[in-house]
Amino acid sequence: MEFNWASSHRYGAARLAHPSTIDEARELVAGADRVRALGTRHTFTGLADTPGLLLSTTGLPMDLEIDEAAGTATVAGGARYGEVAIALDARGWALATMASLPHISVAGAVATGTHGSGNRTGSLAAAVRAVEIIGPDGALRRVSRGEPDFAGSVVAIGALGVVTRVTLDIEPSYVIRQAVYRDLPWSRAETDFDALTGAAYSVSLFLDWASDRIAQVWLKSRGDLPGELFGVAPADEPVHMLAGATTEAVTGQQGMPGPWHDRLPHFKLAFTPSRGEELQSEYLLPRSAVQEAFAGLRPLGRRISELLQITEVRTVAADDLWLSCAYGTDVVGIHFTWVKDIERVYALLPDIEAVLLPLGARPHWGKCFVTTDVADLYPRMADFRALRARVDPGGKFGSALVDKLLG
């Protein structure tokens, strides 16, 4: 069987199918005992795995449909965000946000609550207007914003069926400028966090926990960029957040205006995302707890830095999606890009979680974490369980890990 994107998990499914039409996908789902959908494989664990059928959605045609009056675009769930963005921009339309990687599939990113950054910007899932899902009997159902099941059907980690089509909020295309500010004092994260994260439309802080500096601050703005950020001028040459990585892979910087889809992600679609040889973890905690989180993690700095490629800190606005890491509160995402040393990373994660979980942090569903006791972190988990029991009473779309996480 094949591996995920980072080769950190080998799928154990009995069968992998690549349908090219929705009708073919429906037939495959109806005829299988156990099914999990598989997108661009950017999940670092066995979350997407099953002992039964892995159904890849990447072969379904994008079939972009734009409803200008409604301000929506409908696309295949297996389409990559970068390809959707290019097609949208060609017709004069845009998304409000993108993740750092444009390589990820729409349905997979939405299902796990993946996000970009911005104090007033929600996750990718917050832009979903409707989802079309294949149920256990192969029937299609569509759930739209405002309907009773909608808030439980968007971030659903694949447990409610195979998402074939997603309808997204769109807006007219716009231009973004991006610049990188290097080597700010760590104290700015402690005393001026709100000013830092509010300095542009989208802001990312990159740091290593071992030094007394914020290595880089990436600002993405719809308007002008500041000439200085706390006395630091923007870099006058392209910068990569990972030491030694090629700057050809990162999106345009130095304040040069460019299309939204070529600035909001950190990486270009044509290049290997990030470094590729890595593991990732992320914990999203209430914004009000960020300073406690920093204070608790700093003593672990040396141990973290021994396994770390980089940490990225971003902000995400609250939403009302039941299994979203931003459910009910504005959050700060503390993201760790690790070297690919599975044993040592997983040995360190319990100590990180001992700091962050008591503060209300929710692990990103698609990344590496240790705890499986997450149900109490989601106030609407009982509602989600009831929804799941109703739409998939036989548990066709479950797995050992999914069932453990959902309780």
From TrEMBL:
Q: What keywords were assigned to this record?
A: Oxidoreductase
Q: Which residue intervals define the domain FAD-binding PCMH-type in the entry?
A: 9-173
Which superkingdom does the taxonomy of this entry point to? Answer: Bacteria
- One matching Pfam family is FAD_binding_4
The record's Gene3D superfamilies line, in alphabetical order, gives: 3.30.465.10, 3.30.70.2520, 3.30.70.2530, Uridine Diphospho-n-acetylenolpyruvylglucosamine Reductase, domain 2, Vanillyl-alcohol Oxidase, Chain A, domain 4
Secreted recorded as keyword = no
Q: Which PANTHER family match?
A: D-ARABINONO-1,4-LACTONE OXIDASE, L-GULONOLACTONE OXIDASE
What is the name of the protein in this document? Answer: Xylitol oxidase
Natural source organism: Asanoa siamensis
